């Protein structure tokens, strides 16, 4: 992965990251977020993947159901958030959703758990000069943004 800062306007920073064949999407963005201290950011990406693992949150079981994507797929849409985890310590927390297009034009979508890039993925990240934290929602068990936590 190669990246650089594009702009810094009153603390609102925009980065570009170019992921290459073999790069792992979640690992790469998490590493950039940790290195740059991103704590209230959003990002989008386009590109293509060798494989991916998506998931669907099942409300009844309060767990994720895997959706494997084997083989080449285009990133039709990918967006996510970067926040601080509950308690504010540790690696940045990523929440990512994406829509992938298969060779026949069919689409598959869900929560992105992991993905391997092939040949490239272009990521644009905009970070706010503040911090957002997550808390565990007691009803779902999910880590949700809490705008009031500081």
Describe the overall structure.
The protein is mostly beta strands and 150 residues long. It has a single domain (2-131), classed as 60s Ribosomal Protein L30, Chain: A. The protein is built from 1 helix and 8 strands, in the order ββαββββββ. The strands form 2 sheets. Strands 1, 2, 3, 4, 5 and 6 form a 6-stranded antiparallel β-sheet that branches. Strands 7-8 form a two-stranded antiparallel sheet. The longest helix has 12 residues, at 25-36. It is flat and about 45 Å long. The model has no long low-confidence stretch (mean pLDDT 95).
Q: H/E series, N to C?
A: EEHEEEEEE
Coarse structural class? mainly beta
Mean pLDDT: 95
* Share of helix, binned: under 10%
Spans of 5+ residues with little confidence (pLDDT < 50)? none
Strand runs, count: 8
Domains (count): 1
Proportion of beta-strand residues = over 45%
Reported for the largest beta sheet, the result is: 6 strands, antiparallel
Morphology call: flat
Helical stretch count? 1
CATH secondary-structure class: Alpha Beta
Could you tell me the CATH topology label.
Answer: 60s Ribosomal Protein L30, Chain: A
The appropriate CATH architecture is: 2-Layer Sandwich
The CATH superfamily appears as Hypothetical protein, similar to alpha- acetolactate decarboxylase, domain 2
Instruction: Calculate Rg over CA atoms.
Output: 16 Å
Taking the alpha carbons of the first and last residues, their distance comes to: 31 Å
């Amino acid at each position: 992965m190669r990246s650089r800062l594009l702009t810094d306007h009153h603390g609102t920073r925009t980065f570009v990251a170019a992921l290459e064949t073999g790069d792992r999407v979640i690992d790469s963005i998490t590493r950039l977020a940790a290195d740059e201290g991103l704590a209230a950011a959003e990002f989008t990406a386009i590109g293509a993947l060798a494989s991916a693992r998506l998931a669907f949150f099942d409300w009844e079981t309060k767990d994720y159901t895997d959706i494997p994507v084997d083989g080449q797929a285009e990133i039709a849409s990918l967006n996510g958030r970067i926040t601080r985890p509950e308690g504010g310590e540790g690696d940045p927390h990523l929440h990512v959703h994406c829509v992938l297009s298969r060779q026949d034009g069919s689409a598959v979508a869900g929560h992105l758990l992991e993905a391997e890039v092939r040949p490239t993925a272009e990521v644009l990240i905009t970070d706010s000069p503040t911090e957002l934290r997550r808390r565990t929602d007691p009803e779902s068990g999910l880590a949700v943004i809490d705008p009031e936590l500081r």
